[in-house]
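A quick word before the example. In earlier lectures we treated sequence and structure as two separate objects. From today on, think of them as two lines of the same record. Here is Endonuclease/exonuclease/phosphatase domain-containing protein written that way.
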Amino acid sequence: MTLDLLKSHKNLFFDQTHFWPLLQNVTNSLKIEINLAKSKVATTSLVQIAQTITPNIFLVQKPYVRNGRIEVLPCQWTSWLSGNGKAGILFLPSRSSPIFLASGENTVIVKIPNRDKPLTVISAYSSPAANTEETIKDLEEVHTKLQNENLIIGADMNAHIFRWGYRANNNRGYQVENFLAEKNL
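And the structure line, produced from the sequence above:
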């Protein structure tokens, strides 16, 4: 399982299926995407990392959640979760004021206003035991509604794709590749 970044002129898609962060400078701010494996230690480490590299946003999958919220986060951070609690967006204090747009079963969506064009950030998770089509349908719907906006999609789709370092594609991989190709991501 590896990281890959596929991008067009205005959209980015992150697939994080290892526990390594993907770092990318976008619109002069730092975004990090990572799977926390439901670990309190990993979530605590994320807080420590944030003190060193000062990102604006974390797109997380499988965060450490208790009582419907991500635990061990500083109270100054803002967080949003998907309905199943497996996809989240963490926003650290900055000059921007993010706007919560929606939370589905597998996705959470936030818009960040900026001078030129707003940036919409989506975090998604598709369990290996679940049907990937449901999460892809959610992503397609958002992409269609916001196709003229800048988008960042951070997702753990549990998909195996050859060009991402797997020996071969699995069915989930083909579904994700088709989505990326159809949407020109």
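Notice the following. The radius of gyration is 15 Å. We will return to this example when we discuss secondary structure assignment.
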